[in-house]
Amino acid sequence: MLLSDEIYRVFCYGRPFTSPAEFNEEVLVFDGFSKAYGMTGWRLGYAHGPARLIEEMIKLQQFTFVCAPSMVQYAGIAALDWDTTSTVRDYERKRDRLYEGIREHFEVSRPDGAFYLFPRAPGDNGTEFVSNAIRSNLLCIPGATFSRRDTHFRLSYAASDETIDRGIGILNQLAQVHESRGVAASPAL
Fold first, then answer.
1. What is the DSSP string of 55-106?
2. Domain limits, CATH 3.40.640.10, in the chain
3. If you placed Cys at 117, which of 35, 155, 156, 176 could pair as Cys (CB 3.0 to 4.6 Å)?
4. Whole-prediction pTM value?
5. How far is residue 123's CA from residue 143's CA, in Å, rounded to a whole number?
6. Handedness of CA 114, 105, 162, 89 (dihedral sign)
7. CA 79 to chain centre
8. If DSSP codes are grouped into helix, strand and coil, which group holds residue 152?
9. What value, to the nearest 5°, has the Cα angle with vertex 45 and ends 13 and 118?
10. Is the separation of the CB atoms in 157 and 98 below 8 Å?
11. What's the pLDDT score for residue 67?
């Protein structure tokens, strides 16, 4: 059985999202409302898949907790009628802004979905680079949080254009300092 986390399904740039459940009945899909509809923290999600498995999941759910609060359930129902097209276009524009802003100084791929970039850290030390970024008042996450390797870092572009532009400036300054000295150092801002 394949478990498919589809929480970012609406954030698919340049092509429609394709779920593996379209091709195989033995796929259990997890989805929710936090990313696509800005309902972060409300913890409303759902699953669909093989009936025998869903039936067992319902039994487990019934004996472990009652339900999501009714106002959250009503918000989820309303969200299903919400057109996310303009939101997705805005995030695609933010992705391009950040990608274009840092690609000269970083090895980075332009993602086809979600709202994160995963650049290679100068010096191949994500934790050290992130520490320098944090000292420069820029929050990003070391790649070791998501991988066994610590060569990259994660950037979110779920931010205002002003914040993205400030981040681009700090990142490029950190990269230039590393390039000129051969070490990652915090710039004087």
1. HHHHHHHHHH---S-HHHHHHHHHHTT---HHHHHHHHHHHHHHHHHHTTTS
2. 2-79
3. 155
4. 0.85
5. 13
6. negative
7. 20
8. strand
9. 40
10. yes
11. 80
* pLDDT averages per 10-residue partition of the chain, 189 residues: 96 94 97 94 94 94 83 96 96 98 97 96 95 96 94 97 98 92 51
CATH of domain 85-181: 3.90.1150.10
Tell me where in the chain the CATH 3.90.1150.10 domain(s) lie: 85-181
Q: What would you report as the CA-atom Rg of the chain, rounded to the nearest whole angstrom? A: 20
105 to each of 60, 178, 183, how far by Cα in Å?
50, 10, 14
pLDDT given for residue 184 in this prediction: 45
Q: What is 2-79's CATH number?
A: 3.40.640.10
Exposed / middle / buried, residue 152 (Cβ in 10 Å: 0-12, 13-18, 19+) = buried
User: Parallel, antiparallel, or unpaired: how do β-strands 27-32 and 2-5 relate?
Assistant: parallel
State residue 182's pLDDT score.
59
